[in-house]
Design a protein that fits this description.
Helix content: 55-70%
Shape: flat
Largest sheet: none
Number of strands: 0
Order of helices and strands: HHHHHHHHHHHHHHHHH
Number of domains: 4
């Protein structure tokens, strides 16, 4: 490639395909950029003949200068985000600011979600900006002392992001993704540490607790597991998030799980339990929340999670749960969840069953 064709190829690399992309990199194996050397000083010479100067001004920039600008901006953004964290700015202070002041408090977790998301986004941008310049810090104009300071600061924010994700229950469970998608996340999204900070092996904390029990604590990053309070808060926030996520499936059952979690948190705060007793209790609660209602606690006819959920939320009536289940199955059509008319058909069928049950109950009361 040369001249106009070369210039067009370079410009196309920088075309944006989403919010994440800021610019592209070109690896030049054949020194084709030498054909544009004159264009760097004079935009209207060489390969850019025929372009007006004002049309191309700013299209060619110094890579190191731009990379330093991005790194400085990324550092400043993360520092500014963390500035309100109260003294002594230890792990607990960061958890209170980004996660919740009262561990297990769903309202606080939700209220602090915007600043957590900002932390994840800004830290990812910082890691990318530093990776682009890490081997050329002095060439970009940083002193050796400045380069060393930045080198030690970037991992601190990356570790903070990982700890906040775990503490708040935001950590991604890669098991829910297909292998190809997990590969993409590993390769392009999830920034890996050079040092192994935890042993999650793509399992969520909840799944680890179900499989390993109290030993799952050993898989937490050292900064969390070395403090019993941080460990407890992390588990409680993750259990709370699990309960909130699963609640629409069976509100009655998960309301009971939420009450059990509240009681367990209260006992731990009052030091009514030893740490080991607490771990055993929270492990059992996690397993109950993760597995859902136990089959043996229901009539044999309620042989599906849907029927058991109907039983729990319809006053414990086996007959009514079976009738509503039959009404749904008899009225639903292919794709009914995303089709307004088909959904209405199911609603009418369910309402008819519930209306008959209400009328029968009213008649019995009157009699």
């Amino acid at each position: 490639m040369r001249d106009h064709g070369l210039f067009q190829a370079i410009c196309r690399v920088n075309r944006l395909d989403g919010d994440d992309k800021e610019y592209g990199y070109i690896v030049d194996y054949k020194d084709l950029f030498k054909r544009l050397e004159g264009a760097v000083e004079d935009y209207t010479s060489g390969a850019l003949d025929g372009y007006d100067k004002e049309d191309v001004a700013g299209l060619l920039e110094d890579r190191l200068e731009k990379a330093r600008e991005r790194l400085d901006e990324a550092l400043e953004a993360v520092r500014a985000l963390c500035e309100p964290v109260e003294a002594p700015r230890d792990d607990q202070a960061f958890y209170r600011y980004f996660s919740s002041k009262e561990h297990g408090n769903a309202a606080q977790l939700k209220a602090n979600e915007p600043q957590r998301l900002a932390l994840y986004r800004l830290t990812a941008a910082l890691v990318r900006a530093y990776a682009n310049l890490a081997s050329e810090m002095t060439e970009a104009g940083y002193t050796e002392a400045e380069a060393a300071a930045i080198k030690s600061e970037v991992p601190l924010y990356e570790n903070l992001r990982n700890q906040v994700k775990l503490h708040s229950g935001d950590a991604i469970d890669l098991k829910q993704y297909e292998p190809a998608m997990r590969h993409l996340i590993d390769t392009y999204i999830r920034a890996e540490e050079s040092e192994k900070v935890s042993e999650f092996d793509d399992l969520s904390l909840m799944q680890l607790i179900v499989e390993r029990g109290a030993l799952a604590v050993n898989a937490l990053p050292e900064a969390i597991r070395k403090k019993e309070k941080s460990t407890a808060e992390t588990i409680e926030n993750n259990v709370r998030k699990l309960i909130i996520d699963e609640s629409p499936i069976n509100p009655k059952y998960y309301d009971a799980m939420s009450e059990l979690l509240d009681a367990l948190i209260a006992e731990r705060r009052k030091a009514a339990l030893s740490y080991q007793e607490y771990l055993q209790e929270i492990v059992e609660l996690t397993r109950q929340a993760k597995s859902g209602p136990k089959l043996g606690a229901y009539p044999k006819s309620l042989d599906s999670a849907a029927r058991r959920a109907l039983f729990d939320n319809l006053g414990g009536s086996e007959d009514l749960a079976l009738k509503v289940d039959a009404a749904v199955r008899g009225s639903m059509q292919d794709g009914w969840r995303s089709n307004t008319m088909k959904t209405r058909r199911v609603r009418i069928a369910v309402a008819a069953v519930l209306g008959m049950a209400t009328s029968a109950s009213t008649a019995r009361s009157s009699w």
